[in-house]
Amino acid sequence: MTLSLNFGTDYASARALFLEACRQRGLSVQSRQHPDAKGPIGEDLFMDVARIGPENADGVLFITSATHGTEGITGSGVQMATLKSTLAEELPNGVALVFVHAINPYGFAHLSRTNEDNIDLNRNFVDFSAPLPENDPYDTIHPFIVPADWQGPEREAAEREIKSYIDRHGEKKLQAVLLEGQYTQPDGLFYGGASPSWSNRQWTEIVAAEGKGARHLAILDVHTGIGPKGYGEPIYVGVDSGFGRARSWFGDDVTNAGKGKSHASEFKGPMVSALWDKHPNAEHTAIVLEFGTRPLTQVLSALRADNWLRFHPDVDKNQHRKIKQDLRDALYVDNEDWRLQIWQRSRQLIERGLAGLANTIK
Ligand SMILES: [Zn+2]
């Protein structure tokens, strides 16, 4: 069987594949429908949850997809391939595997990285009752990251400003300022929101219920768009004392975002933090699994275009289609070699995660 059969071409086909695979495994699926948001042809949107393993598991491994909408094509493919593999048949004693399909169904359905309110869900898990993180450098570059027009003189002027910024500060600095996240520009990139989003509240409830009673919670949250093409970087998120354990489970190439050899930057408000917010007395091993697709300049340009489109929806159909296709191409490499790399790496890390959990709860 070719791997492409596990990768939907869009949200609707990916969800249909996921539901069918769960049915074939005899798994019940808990579907949480979005109360307001709809897909591009008015279809209903859901976050779906399926669990394999005992109810009172001591160790739980979550595998999550589409925290960043568009990236769900890959995350969903990984979930599908896992469901169809022997991994789903041979869980260690006391360990459960929980799939959460489409954390951000709106973004997945509309091929946007952000949700229905342009919120980056991996920046949305901050304490909104406290002063929000500040990112003054982002405020400075915001006007040319999101120019008033995506074609013509406004865009050209914005590109000149970006080039000048990179000449002065370097590309790494631009990446760090952007990816850190921001809470002041709702029409900007990497916007963390002003309150917990629908997806945040659903995911938090799922973690509370599925992790109940477990002594150790782990997660692989699947992403794309950062790092060398086809490489899967396991990025540890959590308190420093857990980093050594994450390396002993998953390998020496586990990184800490923004440090050492990591291709990723530091950021605030990750969705994996629901694990320790809901289960402060358990141990946690959280990994953002980031698969490289295209050069970062291409990814950022596609994200900027899609962000511009969000606030200029009246563009002609061809421009709309091109911006969406460019973003899809930037975050997903549509060939079998790439999918094979993604699945082999995912399989390896899931195996290691399950083994790590089995050892730690022994
Ligand atoms: Zn992502």
Q: In this structure, how is the largest beta sheet organized? A: 8 strands, mixed
Ions and ligands: zinc ion
The strand line-up of the biggest sheet is 1-2-4-3-5-8-6-7
Q: What is the average per-residue confidence, as pLDDT, rounded to a whole number? A: 95
Which segments are poorly predicted (pLDDT under 50) over 5 or more consecutive residues?
none
Radius of gyration, CA atoms, in whole angstroms: 20 Å
Q: Give the terminus-to-terminus CA distance.
A: 36 Å
Number of helices: 12
N-to-C SSE string, H for helix and E for strand: HEEEHEHHHHHEEHEHEHHH
**Based on helices, strands and strand pairing, what is the structural class?**
alpha/beta
- Rough shape? globular
Name the beta content range: 15-25%
Number of strands: 8
**Fraction of helical residues:** 40-55%
